[in-house]
Protein: Cupin domain-containing protein
Amino acid sequence: MSSSRHDQYREEVLGRANVADTPELVAYYERLESLGTAALWTVANKIEPWEPVPSSVPMLWRYDDLREDVLKALDLVTPEQAGRRVIYFDNPGRSDVSAAVGWLYSGLQVMGPGEVASSHRHSASALRFIMEGQGAFTNVDGHKMTLGANDFVLTPNGTWHEHGVAEDGTTCIWQDGLDIPLMNALEANFYEVHPDLSQAISYPVDDSTAKWASAGLKPAGENWSKPYSPLLKYEWAPTYEALSKLAKVSDGSAFDGILMDYINPQTGGPVMQTIGASMQMLRPGEKTKAHRQTGNFVYQCAKGSGHSIINGQRFDWKERDVFVVPAWLYHEHANASDSEDACLFAFHDLPVMRALGLYREEAFAENGGHQPILS
Amino acid sequence: MSSSRHDQYREEVLGRANVADTPELVAYYERLESLGTAALWTVANKIEPWEPVPSSVPMLWRYDDLREDVLKALDLVTPEQAGRRVIYFDNPGRSDVSAAVGWLYSGLQVMGPGEVASSHRHSASALRFIMEGQGAFTNVDGHKMTLGANDFVLTPNGTWHEHGVAEDGTTCIWQDGLDIPLMNALEANFYEVHPDLSQAISYPVDDSTAKWASAGLKPAGENWSKPYSPLLKYEWAPTYEALSKLAKVSDGSAFDGILMDYINPQTGGPVMQTIGASMQMLRPGEKTKAHRQTGNFVYQCAKGSGHSIINGQRFDWKERDVFVVPAWLYHEHANASDSEDACLFAFHDLPVMRALGLYREEAFAENGGHQPILS
Amino acid sequence: MSSSRHDQYREEVLGRANVADTPELVAYYERLESLGTAALWTVANKIEPWEPVPSSVPMLWRYDDLREDVLKALDLVTPEQAGRRVIYFDNPGRSDVSAAVGWLYSGLQVMGPGEVASSHRHSASALRFIMEGQGAFTNVDGHKMTLGANDFVLTPNGTWHEHGVAEDGTTCIWQDGLDIPLMNALEANFYEVHPDLSQAISYPVDDSTAKWASAGLKPAGENWSKPYSPLLKYEWAPTYEALSKLAKVSDGSAFDGILMDYINPQTGGPVMQTIGASMQMLRPGEKTKAHRQTGNFVYQCAKGSGHSIINGQRFDWKERDVFVVPAWLYHEHANASDSEDACLFAFHDLPVMRALGLYREEAFAENGGHQPILS
Amino acid sequence: MSSSRHDQYREEVLGRANVADTPELVAYYERLESLGTAALWTVANKIEPWEPVPSSVPMLWRYDDLREDVLKALDLVTPEQAGRRVIYFDNPGRSDVSAAVGWLYSGLQVMGPGEVASSHRHSASALRFIMEGQGAFTNVDGHKMTLGANDFVLTPNGTWHEHGVAEDGTTCIWQDGLDIPLMNALEANFYEVHPDLSQAISYPVDDSTAKWASAGLKPAGENWSKPYSPLLKYEWAPTYEALSKLAKVSDGSAFDGILMDYINPQTGGPVMQTIGASMQMLRPGEKTKAHRQTGNFVYQCAKGSGHSIINGQRFDWKERDVFVVPAWLYHEHANASDSEDACLFAFHDLPVMRALGLYREEAFAENGGHQPILS
Ligand SMILES: [Fe+2]
Ligand SMILES: [Fe+2]
Ligand SMILES: [Fe+2]
Ligand SMILES: [Fe+2]
Ligand SMILES: [Fe+2]
Ligand SMILES: [Fe+2]
Ligand SMILES: [Fe+2]
Ligand SMILES: [Fe+2]
Structure:
């Protein structure tokens, strides 16, 4: 904490630190430093801001810009060399921790027919959202799941998992989402390679949906006590149907339109302890109002096109584009079409915010709820 | 507690009461009685049995036997006169409390086109299981639901509810299930007639399923905190599909075949606090093993035919027949068909058993798990 | 359900059953009866009362009246013969189920120095409240506890337990409280005699309080998951001190004065799943207002004297007297002294009411909250 | 993410990234960078370490070294200028976030008689542990608490709080513990100065302990639903008595001796959502074995003297010294005395680890459980 000045964070507000440097104080600060200590009032206003100012920046990554380079990775590295063949989203404000936004990592993984990545497990919770291709699969603790476009699949903290594409499939691309940066920040990240590099298929293929994807029903005698959803795969067709049904009986949210959270059907809570996810539908012509939330969001457009205004900045998106909303920045969404709905998949760290008592949200109060566009 | 003898419950077992009457003791017992007291050892073995012996008897009611008389009630009483036009199942061991089994009441309600029963609410939890007819509906706290055969609908403790049949419907019969006897036994039964005798339809028709019947998804921002399921109607088609899917990936239960519990999708728990329900499929040729459970069960055959052996007694059933399994009696089920599946709907008081720490089950240990048939 | 008349429960209220007998209907009822059924409207108003009317009657048992006969039992029966040497409270409205009130059993147990009752366990939850004598002890699952006057001790559902008095003790009397009647009503009562008739002392004596009776602290690494309190004994001295401290900072309840619930320190909830308990202090001169609650209460005066008015009837009590308040009857309490506080121990079935969603209470609205005294 | 080399994290292990730079790949990496992306395999082994390596260093701060400078702050700044007059512990590995260890902040606050710090609230959870002086107090949401040496007091997330020393008190020093760094890292830190700079005393002084510090009892009718303990102050005398009692019936933990967690008496869980605390007693001559845990610990010696070995480094401590154990470093403790016990207060972020499913611990397997001392 050596610095020529110690009074750079002064505020002229009652109740805040406001101590000017003097030679005597500077000498005092230097002695404190030699003892492995410092004076709180020299940093208090810095470490206790009035409200969060995220270090992440709002960003959008256009799939059109990335797809070719993602595919090119097929030629450049093998899964064996790379571990996982992924191009990740590198937020300029979070490059030091390889995050897309906040403490969330995300990237695009590409695999060709017959390829399989080695099995492993880690403390980071992970999910995948399928973007294109036929024949992708994931094996989570012996539960093999087949995957199609817009399917959403979990690989929770501590589960053995491996991904691949069937021999008779096509090149597949999916979005990975993990909280690797959070696990590192919390110094709780463990990683293991599966002793056999590959795990067995221990259950009938897609048994997870056969058992747990029946609304309002559960297999008797199955006492699920793990801290994540027993339903590991959420398919697109029933998800889109659910949104369509909800739209018929609900006005939805002023900020998000028709928004459904993916849940653990055994608890009604989030799918994993540290990452939640949702799918939302913006109805034809819908334009939501702005609000801000603690927590970070990674969006992928699953259907249609539109734009979002984040902290006054407009980002236009269409199917497969990815964008991020950093914590406590106002954001609002608009569907570009007056005839088609648009759907946004999102994953976020709200389960962390809620588990720790930190979730807040606030509506944008002025201008009818719409931000002025700054750029 | 006046009785000529006080030693009728003696047992010659160490640790059990075993006191013979003497003139001195009888005089003592009489003085105790005059003080509003009694000696525990005169009744201890009676009130602390080694294991439960239910007062209910196993029974089956054949729909063919009842249907005509149920329909006849249409001519005999109006809903206005009767409150509800129901013929109830009167277990010979439980006539004093009007129970079908244990503390569970059940009956067959019949309504004609255009009829509506008056709106009311009560502490008893209630459910309906539709047997025949077109156009039945229930309105629960303003949520109107349309009902078809084998649909299962809740009217939880404290909710305003009314039933009826649409003007353009046909005569409908459904099974009612309630825990009226339990509420009376617990001296906690309250009853109110709706001030207007009828309640408004406050939401889009069938909004409950539109919002809550999407597996693994929930409407964001809906924070359900009531002690019963927000999903009030469980339709037959998805229920049967769920059983069929489960049958493909699960061996099921040795005692119940392919059994799914109806659940509150927000908790994974039972649909109401005092009554649970399930639907089970006996696969072609399936014959389960016997077990016994604390708690009482009311079954209705929803599809196919077969038989159950309850406490050594065989009961043959087919679609729409109703039968009951009293607490702690061994029971096993068999599908009569080698080519078709058979389905049994059941409701029960296991949520009470579980909430109070009293649930137990035990497999029948002998004879390969099958009871000898006594009658 | 044979009866000459079937219309004895008619009510002239819209929404209630109101069907007069006719020859045709009576013939119909008889046919229904032959089918093991009956018409709901003949009993609907009986089984769905407007509000609970308890079958128990309010009662008070004076210790002065009972003590001599309780002690006499020492000469009349041995613990070996009697199992437990207890004189129980026999509510005239509940004699058929040996209950003191509702589904709660209670009695006075007496043991002499050196006597021990045989070890056993059962589904009924049990408690003891010590009234007089030195050297009483209870052993619950190997945890031996020493007991003094006004100490309260648990023997939860399923725990092995035995009671006795030390060789160098004196004759001891305590009040037993159990929910034997409820367990029987729910047909879930199991009873086992310990194979050795006696169990080992497996832990340091009074380890339960040494581990769990420290407010705001718990032994690290002890992960208690049983459905009852790990703290098995609640001693009188800290309980009385707790009430005294609370009285200094709280106005207390209008209905109960300074009332504290005994809790499971791991959950803040009731001590056992089916029985709760409390101790309350009526301050000098305190006279509470009347209210009524679902659930049944057994009181013992632990200190001082006063009276309670239950359903308009006055009951005067002093130390060691026992009285009961049946469900949904208004009750209010008064301390007889203007200088000393009075304390009432109570146990009740509110945990059952709450677990099943049936708890209600209501203040007496007239006359400044005080009932007219009828007797 | 610009760097001359991209293959610095290669590992020669199957399942790990192992891609050497080539001119073609470097060109590819540069294009990815221009798109706001990067290749996962260039950083995978860095961001997915095999196990945590904390950035914090083990440290001890001797009170003898600091006390004089802490007191000197009385002369250098007023509470009005400083906000709070605190010298904080500045871990060399965590200077950028002003943390003592991990994401935990800690410092020594000093106040003179009659001084009061202005009232405020923030998202950071906070606690104080009193070190010396008479007359200290804290007001939390209107609950004023008087504080003595070794008392532990909470100021949870979102509560208004202010500290001071009575006019007739003496200079007081206490240790502050907060998770300010975590709140900042999670970008969820809000800060408010109380509109009046001071808040009212809304309840009887010390009402929190009068209501909630009675073991196994709670004030009836108080339904506490806030996510932190209603008991806000944990006094030293009953805490030390609790440890002494536990020591008589428990062998304690091989790693921690007699260790008790401060708990929320309504849940049995940690005192706040993001910070837990404990007090432990090392019995005379006790020397514990080494283990390591996810989560970070700040210790203060509350009584006696001894040493701890952290990651092979020995730290000798006596009363009032503060030391820290970073995540996943082995640590063991020893009492210096063969006749007196030694007590360590600790606070930590285990509630965060547990809420997010990240808690792990591991015993040191070699050398009888004792680390070799490296320094
Ligand atoms: Fe992974
Ligand atoms: Fe949002
Ligand atoms: Fe009803
Ligand atoms: Fe069964
Ligand atoms: Fe017993
Ligand atoms: Fe009461
Ligand atoms: Fe603060
Ligand atoms: Fe440790």
